[in-house]
Write a structure and sequence with these properties.
Mean pLDDT: 89
Low-confidence stretches: 2-6
Largest sheet: 9 strands, mixed
CATH architecture of the largest domain: 3-Layer(aba) Sandwich
Helix content: 25-40%
Number of strands: 14
Strand order of the largest sheet: 10-9-8-7-11-6-12-14-13
Order of helices and strands: HEEHEHEHEHHEHEHEEHEHEHEEE
Strand content: 15-25%
């Protein structure tokens, strides 16, 4: 933290505590924020919180403005704590630096600099001209972790991709009879739905679509602030049950089917859902480009995708290293057998291949185990 020499360590702790509260607000952001970053703010006066806010939806008020609206006249002469330096230019909304000055904010504490070099440190200059003091409290790493999806999408031609699987201790996603409901406990399934509600699209393969007839909805209490993730099906053969629920008129959100050119026209005729788009991604039957699918989705405005299977599709993403995170929910069960591996039954790598995964989180969820890995292959061309 940059501060004057006469500021006591106790006061520094207070400033950091307020910034931590601002980050708690930032974490309330949902998939409605994309393509913007998650940002939170707190307004403090005489040691009391007068206003709080977070960026709720792209195109709507930023965190600072929402906090000012809550504080009303109490914002005058107060301190503003915001996780990211305020915007200082016109975009979808007016600059927050103007709103801060008009509200009479005395000081602005911010936890991270803008990653866009064109905007970096401009807020400090804009606020200085209005005699508003700015103080940087170094929460840059916290911000970058929170906004890793946003930062990835600034430079990548494909969206951020998370792979998710619920497995047994021997790495199976089904028992010998092909049953998979339910491998993990209820608390693990709830945690998985929390990941769903931060995704703007869920990807599955044809086998999962035909066998499970999934809804791919977010089934959590109080999730009305989240937009329905798109339902994305990858099927090179186009052999899909067109009477499945995802293709009905009642499905909320966009449905996208990637298939090969020879079967795309026939598939379009058999689908009654007007929100369903059939995209040809491969000229030959049973040939499809996963990277091509991801590139298409990025151009269409998708930023954070969740791949839920099945095993063949997960294996393809792993083989090509076309993902950023791998989330595994492991149940204390054994199924055995030669089939049912969560990443398919074909060879992906050998023991001599260098690992490209780094264990980032490990957590016990009741009697299950949650493992989160990060793909350290980020600088490879496959992720650009």
């Amino acid at each position: 933290m940059k501060h004057k020499k006469n500021i006591s360590s106790n006061l520094i702790s207070i400033h950091k505590a307020h910034m931590q509260n601002a980050f708690k607000n930032a974490n309330k952001g949902t998939n409605k924020v994309y393509p913007n970053p998650f940002v939170g703010a707190v307004i403090v006066k005489a040691g009391k919180i007068m206003g709080e806010g977070y960026h709720e939806e792209c195109g709507k008020a930023h965190a600072e403005v929402n906090a000012i609206r809550m504080a009303q006249t109490h914002a005058k002469g107060a301190d503003l704590y915001v996780t990211l330096e305020p915007c200082s230019t016109y975009g979808r909304t007016p600059p927050c630096t103007t709103a801060i000055a008009e509200a009479g904010i005395k000081r602005v504490f911010f936890g991270a600099y803008d990653s866009n070099k064109k905007n970096r440190k401009k807020a400090e200059m804009a606020l200085k001209t209005k005699n508003i003091e700015t103080v940087f409290i170094d929460f840059q790493k916290t911000n970058d972790e929170l906004n890793r999806v946003f930062l990835h999408n600034l430079t990548s031609k494909i969206p951020y991709v998370i792979l998710k699987a619920a497995i047994s201790l021997d790495g199976k996603i089904m028992d010998s009879k092909g049953k998979s409901k339910w491998i993990t406990g209820a608390q693990s399934r709830t945690a998985a739905h929390q990941i769903r509600q931060l995704s703007d699209g869920i990807i599955i393969g044809a086998n999962t679509f035909n066998k499970d007839n999934p809804k791919l909805t977010v089934r959590l209490a109080g999730n009305q602030k989240f937009k329905d993730p798109a339902k994305i099906i990858i099927s090179a053969s186009g052999n899909l049950k067109t009477n499945n629920e995802l293709l009905s008129k009642n499905t909320k959100g966009e449905v996208i089917i990637f298939t090969s050119e020879p079967v795309s026209a026939k598939l379009r005729k058999n689908i009654k859902n007007n929100n369903c788009i059939v995209v040809s991604m491969g000229k030959a039957l049973k040939q499809i480009s996963l990277k091509g699918c991801l590139t298409y989705l990025k151009k269409r405005g998708y930023h954070n995708l969740l791949v839920e299977g099945g095993a063949k599709l997960l294996g393809q993403f792993i083989k090509l290293k076309l993902f950023n995170e791998l989330h595994l929910y492991v149940a204390p069960k054994f199924f055995g057998g030669n089939k049912g591996s969560f990443c398919g039954d074909k060879t992906l790598f050998t023991v001599n291949n260098k690992t490209f995964l780094k264990l980032d989180k490990i957590k016990q969820i009741n009697n299950d185990l949650y493992l989160e890995y990060r793909n350290v292959y980020r600088n490879n061309k496959s992720l650009k």
